[in-house]
Design brief:
203 residues; alpha+beta; Alpha-Beta Plaits; eight-stranded antiparallel barrel; 25% helix; globular
């Protein structure tokens, strides 16, 4: 019997290269009912994650999707030379109303598969940070015409947070870094993978 592929909601981050494939993908997602929101963003990889994604670029399309199976089809149809990232949210930690517009999304990875108590501890720490409007645990899938030579070893343990703030991206980045340090002080190893600064909302 074939194994049923589970479908999740989450985020997809695809390189925007001003190529035919990029433009087609953008138009597809603007029209798609599967895409709740679509942003044009700047992506910054951490020094820890950059070696795994040497083909990274500066500008990405960031979309919030309802069903990951549709996203896989979109990315296979519009696959590119640079890596696209799909973050499937398997466990929503919280979502709440906060002041300001979403202007920053950051992705962390846990170096060890933490247990339920650790997840709860991380959720509690994130809840204390009043600018975080949404947080979730999940996994990461990659799409690229030329796969990386190095396999990223922590794809099964990612944390995605959305931050709303009127402050500069640099200021929000520092805020997120402080949040990460708070978690690590509790003995859990949470490392920044990718920070996405929202430049424009396309949908």
């Amino acid at each position: 019997m074939s194994k049923l592929a589970l479908s999740y909601s989450g985020y997809v981050c695809a390189p925007y290269l001003h190529t035919h494939e990029s433009v087609e993908l953008k138009e597809t997602w603007i029209k798609s009912k599967n895409i709740e929101k679509l942003f044009f963003v700047t992506g910054t990889f951490s020094t820890e994650s950059k070696p795994y994604f040497s083909d990274s670029t500066n500008h990405y399309l960031l979309a919030k999707f309802k069903d990951s199976s549709h996203i896989s089809k979109d990315l296979l149809q519009h696959n590119q030379d640079k890596t696209s990232f799909v973050f499937n949210i398997q466990d929503d930690l919280f979502q709440r109303e906060v002041q300001g517009e979403t202007n920053f999304v950051t992705i962390y990875y846990l170096e060890y598969g933490e247990d339920g108590e650790d997840f709860q501890e991380i959720a509690n720490l994130l809840l204390k940070r009043e600018k975080i409007e949404k947080a979730g645990f999940g996994n990461m899938n990659l799409f690229c015409l030329t796969p990386s030579k190095f396999t990223f070893p922590y794809s099964e343990h990612v944390v995605v947070i959305e931050v709303a703030s009127e402050k500069s991206h640099q200021s929000v980045k520092k805020y997120c870094e402080q949040t990460r340090r708070d978690v690590n002080r509790k003995g859990m190893t949470m490392t920044n993978l990718l920070s996405l600064s929202i430049l424009d909302q396309l949908k």
